[in-house]
Structures are given as C-alpha cells and as structure tokens.
Amino acid sequence: MYHQRSFCGGQPWLAEYLHEFATFPKGKFDDQADSTSQALDWVKEKYVEPGIFVYYREEHKKLLRQQGRFDELRKLEERYPSATPMGPAKCAKCGGTLIAKIGPQSRCQQCGSQWG
Ligand SMILES: [Zn+2]
Which stretches does DSSP call E strand in 1-116? Predict the structure, then answer.
C-alpha cells in the first residue's frame, strides 16, 4: 500500500505500532498502547503551561467581553478557567513558595503535594 509505505518509510516499527492502536483493545498485543497512554498521562501531569499562552488567552477573553461575544467567552472559560487571584501561593504541607499551576491544580515544586 502506497499510503502506508510513505507514512512508515524509514520507521520499521511504526506500522506495527499503529496496528496495535488500530486494533486496541481487541488486538493480540497492547504493551505499546499501554505504555503510550501512561507516557501521555505523565506528560499531561508534568506539563506547566507557558505563561505567554495564559497571557494571550486572557487578552482574548477581554476582547470577547468588550465585544459582547459572551457565548464564545463562556466556552473559553469552561475549558480554561481564569486563574483565581489569591494571596502569595504557599504550600500548606512544606511552606514552599515554588508553586506550579497545572490547569486548575496547583503543585508544590518542592515537596510535590497538589491541591485545587
Ligand atoms: Zn510543599
């Protein structure tokens, strides 16, 4: 198949990998699908959104508010709630002040405890 060959050319493992996903969970093997989903969970958990993204999104929300585009604003708020202003963030467990925001969650970078 031309399509598959062009897509998988040079990566002999790729066809097998994609096949495992295409047949999951009824395929013969699931190790790669399992480990991929675990890796994606790990990335999602560790990912801290760059501040510039937050800045532009908040600017976009301001614009929608000014233009009365409340349907779009509500959808954006549901997906990306604005950070609630709070005092200087401090970890209740260790008193650490290196706090990362992960979506609505906060995580202490010093002891790893999470809340929110
Ligand atoms: Zn802590």
Answer: 99-102, 105-108, 114-115
